Amino acid sequence: MHPNLPPRTLKELIALARAKPGALNFASSGNASPGHLAGELFKSMAKVNLVHVPYKGGGPAMVDLVAGHVEIFVAVISTAVPQVKAGKARALAVTGPRRATALPDVPTVSESALKGYEATNWYGYVAPPNTPRAIIERLHQATVTVLEMPDVRQTLLDQGIEAAPSSPEQFAAYIKSETGKWTKVIKAAGLRSE
Questions:
Q1: Which of 60, 138, 158, 173 is such that its CA lies 20 to 30 A from the CA of 1?
Q2: pLDDT, mean of residues 94-112
Q3: Is residue 73 classed exposed, middle or buried when 0-12, 13-18 and 19+ CB atoms within 10 A define those classes?
């Protein structure tokens, strides 16, 4: 959030938002982006009315947060960390299941205010249906090998990204669970594709 706003904790932000319904806005990197969906989940769980302001990417949204044109930005950690460390933005919470290595003193949303809240950005490779198992295994092993390289791991950590490779089966199950979770959020918020 913008550092000039009074809340110092997520609970204080929720209290302010409840006291002033519709008066605070939250930026995201675009309609239906991960930040937009994470913000909608937050609104639902916190029972607050925040106005969504979609941007065409995280960079423009962060510029407007730092300038004070928007109060809150649900940002990916790699966009947020440099501004938080420079004191140009205040991190109240991280949306993942555990504290981020890049911001170890910042609590999770779940531990600070909304038990069970979790919204993470994830990246992975998918292949067309019926791709031979040998090809899937080869791609998987090559990906894990690269992600375990110390220089790659450190480069990602410097950006706030923690690599967590999983098996193809674990990833497929995760995609399925995420699809179900976010479908509910999209329907509850009444979001439609443009």
A1: 158
A2: 95
A3: buried
